[in-house]
Amino acid sequence: MNTSDRPVAVIGAGPVGLITALGLVAHDVPVVVFEAGDVLSADTRAGTVLTRTLEVLDRYGALGPVLEVSLRLDEIGEVDRATGTSTGSVLLSALADETRFPFVVNVPQHELEPVLAGVLSERAPGALRMGHRLVDFVQHDDGVTLQLSTSDGIVEFEAAYALGCDGGRSTVRERLGARMDGHTLEQRYVLVDLVCDLDVENPRDYPYLAYFGDREEWMVLVRQPHCWRFVFPLAPGRPEPSADELRDRARHFVGEVESVEVLDSNVYTVHHRVASSWRDRRVFLLGDAAHLITPMWALGLNTGVLDASNLPWRLAWVLRGWAAAGLLEGYEAEQRPVAVHGSGAMAEAARAVMSRRSDSVAGWRDAMTRTLLGVRLGADWSMTRTGPPQVGDRAPDLRVFGPRGPVHLHELCRDTFLALHLTDARRRPFLPGDDPAGLRQVVVSRWDAPRAYFDPGDAVRERFGEVVVLLRPDAHIAHVEPWTATSWQSVRARYLQEVRLEG
């Protein structure tokens, strides 16, 4: 059920805009993406997709095509540049019990975008409209009228909501009058893609994502599917390096190699800025339009994908009539602290580690945070914590067994709130058959029974305890309480509070 006959408009066809659109399509929300350019960007930009983003892509049905063009890696290395010796690695295999994707992938943004656009075109033919530059918009009680510049002149489009995914120079943000609060670093970053052989002819055996720390000049080395990428700082006032200088700089970092070809390069300004407001009624900001985070530790693009994970299901619930419009207020309330305190704080920590002003600690906690699995939503914001999962945490993607075989928790809650009753199925605990739309309740137990998911060895209950836990469609925990025979009632009440239909 869709209570509006108008699609949601996404402004901008970068990765965040395309993933947001795929999220809306996954929830059966009609969507149109407007991109100002006639072609997708070919700029040398983001290049690493973190584990949490892989989970989001899987939920939205786009992971397979992305993996086909990507390079997978299970180690994030740290190296002392002066000595060339390892100072520790973040081994993502530590997350094997936490996620189905205990790795990250390297793929250049200009190769990622066409893949995402292709999946969108298959799922929603005609949804991507190139050569449509947003000029202005007017909001109404029941929608947004967009004014777009095209080769045929100005056209208007009626949308239910408008989502600004149009980058750091966002027209949507400008029209909303939102400020970008924060600071800009004096130091700029240089990103260069090079063709050279560091595997066979000149083996270096560096991890395929390696951070070389140094007080004077750090460097990041990224193995892309078809090239090597180098990232290093550019001192204030220094001119943009020439191709020859970039080639010489690469040799300076990794030693003499026989052949080095410069494919492309980019010099960009580094920010830590967050928009003063992310929403005005039916218009929202996502990605770089809402926050400009240093792309150290791959925090730029991947933080934007967290926005694209949070908002689509909320819009779907409201448009289906399953939730009141107040549900949309949770988007900024949850994602702003992630940008300011989560990714922003991690970026500052990354710079400190790279310039040898502090040490990094490799281990499970580092693996969680460096893949953005450890970000906790809500007012009680924090990074990875210990103990049983709590409200706001991303639920571990644990395996259970349904009637036809294994299935994971994140798969079970893709388009529903899911209540897991972790109790003894032999006692046939009562579950209602008339829950409100958007809510499903199931039993999880090491004792097999009808309507129960089988949990061999009590793995899920060992992780959560004997509780009932309510998962949201984005796999974050909405509610936890000790299990009782009447927990189904409190879960139902909590769900109605979550979607703003009661209380």
Largest sheet: number of strands, sense, barrel closure: 8 strands, mixed
Q: What oligomeric state do the depicted chains represent?
A: single chain
**Shape summary:** globular
CATH architecture of the domain at 8-71 and 107-180 and 274-334: 3-Layer(bba) Sandwich
Tell me the radius of gyration: 23 Å
**Strand order, sheet with most strands:** 6-5-14-15-16-13-17-20
Number of strands: 27
What name does the CATH topology of the domain at 8-71 and 107-180 and 274-334 carry?
FAD/NAD(P)-binding domain
Name the CATH superfamily assignment of the domain at 8-71 and 107-180 and 274-334.
FAD/NAD(P)-binding domain
Strand content: 25-35%
Low-confidence stretches: none
Measure the end-to-end span: 24 Å
> Can you count the helices?
12
For the record, what CATH class of the domain at 8-71 and 107-180 and 274-334 applies?
A: Alpha Beta
Helix-residue proportion: 25-40%
Mean pLDDT: 91
Derived from helix and strand composition plus strand pairing, the structural class reads alpha/beta
